[in-house]
Predict the 3D structure of the following.
Amino acid sequence: MKNTSCPRISFDFTGRFLPPVFISVFIIGLVANGWGLKTLLQKWKKLKIINVFVLNLGLADMLYLLTLPFLVDYYIRDSQWIFGDAFCKITRFCFNLNLYGSIGFLTCISVYRYLAVVHPIRVIRLTVTHSVTISVMVWLLVGVQCLPDMFYTKTFGNKPGKCYETTQKAFVEDYLKYSLGWTLTGFCIPFLITLGCYGHVIVVLCRKNTTDKVLKQKCLKLLFILILLFSVCYIPFHVLKNLNLWSRVLSKMLCREWSNGVYIAHQISRGLVCLNSALNPLVYLHGNEEIPAQLRQQLQQAHQMFSRFLPSDSGSVSVSVSVTQI
């Protein structure tokens, strides 16, 4: 079957779907991550081990969020990239660095929680210096994983045109092999480690009736956040990304009716995966005990400020009404 008879791929769907998602994530993520990082940096001298991982998680999010305005411009221009080949590769590199850096630091947080509950004596020996060293190693490992992606063709030179998320059709077979290996090392292995850690933690907490209820609730909340992140953001993206690459490989030989559906599903998963930059601040609320208290204090201050602008007799009216009703 010739390619001319293949079902048309809905490339215009990307331009309609992704810009609103990117704009929303940029606004929410910038505010939430900016506030969270500010709160952590204000307590720099009192940073705990887990907060170092949370801090790096926020930095990874900010790195990606700053590239979103350029991607919005790209898709609004009907997939016309005007910022050059080098910046296209940098933009895609920042996305990958954020994605796999987030997975890496979430895995570090999971391992730390596991040690704190199951092997508390080992946690006592750990220091902030250890967590900083581990964070540097995570950045290096993620950078090494992402670096080969920079060598694949992303544009047609410096002329306005495509800025491929993966690569152009001529190199898609090699990229699929690289993507499968990348998925295994950057996503599957950390995911299994995270599941193993929290699975063991839940078993231990359920067996020990003397375990602190607050600790049990915190672990269950963090487990829920991680399940949310992996099930909504990470799993669909990796499955559909590789499936879409496979459909592109098959399209060279034979047309597939499901190729368009896979493409649209993959674009939706791209919108979902970028939500991790807006959802990761949930880890701030859980990882730092002082942040929820500060948030409540700021909300109370905001409530008091707004109450000053309300009519002074509104309180008496409401009281009199309630009294008459009684």
User: Anything to note?
Assistant: The two ends are 80 Å apart (CA to CA). DSSP finds 13 helices and no strands in the chain.
